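Escalation from tier 1.

The customer reports that the assembly of two entities below gives different structure tokens on two consecutive runs. Tier 1 could not reproduce it. I'm attaching the input and our single run for tier 2 to review.
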Amino acid sequence: MWGVVQPMRISIDSGGTFTDCIYLENGVLRVLKLFSTPQDPDKAVLDAILQVAGPDVLPDVRHGTTVGTNAMLERKGARVAFVTTSGFEDTIAIGRQARTSLYDWFRSPMPCIVAAKLRFGVDERTSSTGEILRSPDRESLAALALQISRSGAESIALSLLFSFANPQNELVVAAALRHLRLPISISHQILPEFREFERASTIVINAYLAPKVSTYLDRLEATLIDKSPMGAIHVMQSSGGIISAKLAVNEPVRTVLSGPAGGVIGAYKLAQIAGFDRIISFDMGGTSTDVSLMDAAEGGPQTTREAIVSEMPVSVPMLDIHTVGAGGGSLASFDGGGILRVGPESAGSSPGPICYGRGQQPTVTDANLLLGRLDPDLFLGGAVCLDHERTRALMNAAKGDLLTVEQFASGILLLAEAAMEKAVRVISIEKGYDPRDFTLLSFGGAGPLHACAMAKSLHIPRVLVPRMPGALSALGILMADTARDFSKTVMWRGSDQQKIRSGFAELEAFGSAALQDQGLGVQASRSADLRYTGQGYELNVPDGDHLVDEFHAMHRRRFGYSSPTHDVEIVTLRVRFVGLSPAVVLPVCEIVPGDGAGAILKRRPMYFSGAWQESAVYDRDRLHPGDTFAGPALVTEYSATTVLPPGCVAEVDAYGNLVIEVQAE
Amino acid sequence: MTDPLPMEPLAKTSEPRAVSDPIELAVFKSRTHSIAEEMGAALRRTSFSPNIKERRDYSCAIFDEAGQVIAMGDHMPVHLGSMPMSVRAVIEALKLEPGDIAILNDPYAGGTHLPDITMVLGIFSDAEPDTPILYAAARAHHADVGGLYPGSMGLCREIYQEGLRIPPVLIVEAGTVNPSVLQIILHNVRTPEEREGDLLSQIGACRVGEHRLREMLERYGPKTLRRLSNDLMDYTERLMRARLGRVGNVCVEAEDFLDSDGFSEDPVRLRVAITFDGEESSVVIDFSGSSPQVASSINAVYAVTYSAVYYVMRCLLPEDAPATAGLMRPVAVKTERGSIVDAVLPAAVAGGNVETSQRIVDVLLRALAQVMPDRIPAASSGTMNNLTVGGGDQRNGRSYAYYETIAGGMGARPTADGVSGIHTHMTNSLNTPVEALEYAYPFRVRRYSYRNLSGGDGQYRGGDGIIREIEFLGPATVTLLADRRVFAPYGLAGGSPGAVGRSLLIAHGKETVLPGKCSIDVEAGSVVRIETPGGGGWGPRLERIGS
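Tier 1 run:
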């Protein structure tokens, strides 16, 4: 009976406040918004499934989870035993010897998540070429197992030096610890790549998250299967690809930034459908802002292997998302030298901005309200009334020697935008991309308030505010492809084609075997990390007929020069298996040229470049494809407000997105 | 005499306000800082040597037309005060034209020690095309600049033995690399390919700065740019004066010692008297009474001493205070010419930048602890434990030069234990990963761990040092430049000192203690073990809670 039923595709993104659910019912895209249940995170997810999927529906659920993220940020994971080559037990704590604040004697790093007495050494050694110099002996392994079982460890992280060059010793140690019946994360299986601290950190995080994430996902899957035996749960990885819940249970480190990855993929897919191939996503929330750059010509969203989460490096592929501490709640004040500062301190949800009624110190949100960029009556659909009087009074008191409170508020916005502008520069200009070639795709509660101003100062010609900016992450998870990454550090010099071919073939065979039970592996794409011998930084080059030539060319594109006579090292081989998800068709409406006048709710003054200007306030839900109108204007909807400064022209496209042409400064 | 006034928070109402629009100025501060950071990112990404990419031993900064620093990336503290001297040396020696880039490393003409090579580029305004209106500079520590020892960090008696000395000259003329200058440099170093890559990437970093600064110049125009630059420096000056003014009229003194110059056994004295002037909100820092310069490589040129003072002053301000020239306006730094803190030709100086600079910080903190006891940590490890190794790699027949610094314990703070195994004060380089090291060089690392209980005891404990043990798989020349082997990092407020450092050679089953500063030839299979000092403790042990 199940065999004839088409599975129903459901995507659920757990957030701090809302759990967003997007699903396809008879080919139609639908949205459901529930309050999250942070104490019991699977409750809201199950509720969503139950509400959406009827009894004769076979649910295919995709999930963006914050269980791993929260465990990392709150540092509430398992008690991990770290096992490594003896003499190197402290690697995980020493890190790279550097301090984060150059000029602050009082700053301390967060404590190492593996306490000293939970770090264990094994007398063994493998060389850089994979030669086993010393094998662990039986007695010491037995002693190690005993020590670990007495240590109260709940999970084991095993990462020996050069295990990626030859996993033999790691396998022997793992076998000797198996009878402890603890989850064990093994470095050559999860991240067979060089740089011992970054690898160990990744493996330790995996072990740290394993018990919590597996309990959560196992329970979720069991409940689902209880209801519908053929149902399945898949999970969004930080890399932007989907994996089965089973795999996520084994390698939870791959899901640390599951939710934000959904937003980036959603932004990219939606932009592509709307006809924009090069975008910078700009997601501004209450305390921080995430930005990411995507170029279809380079395969879309880019991954990094240098991410840091909760002060620890995570070296499995993660979408390259850059975060800065500037958001709607960022606090503004004058410092001792008389300069205005905004953030990184935030008013958070308590006390919150002044306009919410309890905060005392001006925030970016207050500045927006004061300058007319938020409508006090229309915030969150009118559910929250913003206190304009209170905001004006307190901001006036805090404006220092500035002449007007408007000047103060404009300054706050300018500085918040400068911080976010810096973040965009880091991911674009610093990496050799010209912002003028991109579209700024803005989402998150506060993003569309600032998008046009940011675009202006970065010379970005266009802003896209998607339809349903609040549910973009869930949409991204629904649209994402399944993906699984395999890699191996080889450190070869030169360009022996045969060696490269057979290296890739071996890695691909290993991957295919691992994926057999995943029903995946439709497409494999090969790439390699290369560098000039002696360099400390690698470039990831897609495999082609001339890997090394392509590296020289890419080096020149990125860094302005290449050295064709210099030796090249092939550092790491990578294979990514991708299973394409069936396309999601977004509803299209006919374009009827119009001026949007029917969507105007009211007119109110907004403050731009030193003067109040009468501006129209549009109701996003009543705008139609083809409507075109110019700033100054405000477009309001339930979870976001878009500011259209003078000189900007917005058009609603066939998908209901706002496409805004921005006049350069 | 003490002044236990708390540093934070600054009283907001009583402070003078910025002359220029505080918003415009804040945006300018953010923009200039972001340009310096962008230059650094370009340098890091394109450099060849692990020393720059992995260890991040470089700095980038922006200067006004007089060579005063306006913005500096969050890079190497030891470069803080000395970068402007490089720019000034270029201004004095050359007339830069558009597209020119000057290069220098001469410690006696704007440099610090020979491995630090600085490049300086001028940015011209179309309205005033004669002289640059801004400068961008990029400095990087190169792993070898020739001289007696691979890595150019060994003990020498005169600067002529330490490597190639480059006075301010043009390496790029009107946008084109001058091959003669480049070839002279490459012919005098042990690893020319790597040097060429790093030099090209420094040129690239300067050009990134040029591009961004020209954009900024177009945005503001020369007049506004000058006003903002000056206002930003004034702003930092106000921050500094506000801090100094609260100390009152006080004079404090302190001394500390370097173990020896490496050739003789005599300790080298560092002495400082700090006089605060409450009315002027200024301070005079006088190093008179410090030892005369020595016939070895631990001499500091004035630029290095100035940098160390700059660093300490910078730490008294909030973390995001911009590092501009204004910060040092209320600070006078006095030295005696020809002393260990103001060496003159032909003194050798390789270690002044890395070792003596740390001791200058130590002696300054020891004095400052008397006037602001709740703000000053006990002594940190006080040495960068510089290890340089050179030799031939039998795996590929090439010669190599490898340089690393090994962290130690941080001194305990008046509120917390010191951090273990971390770089402090004048350096903040990253370690080279063991697995990267063994791929690149014929070494095998045998141990890399904390040195337990090396931190000084106290109410708050000093951080522990590190133990690093390296086996050499072929014959090699090993050079060690380290200190705090005799004089331990001091504790404060009754805390115990940290453990002194120790270095051992293990060969043929025998352990030999090595001097802190030495250069030795080792055979294949020899092991060098370095134990770095712990940080000093803070407060009497009795006060420690729960121990």
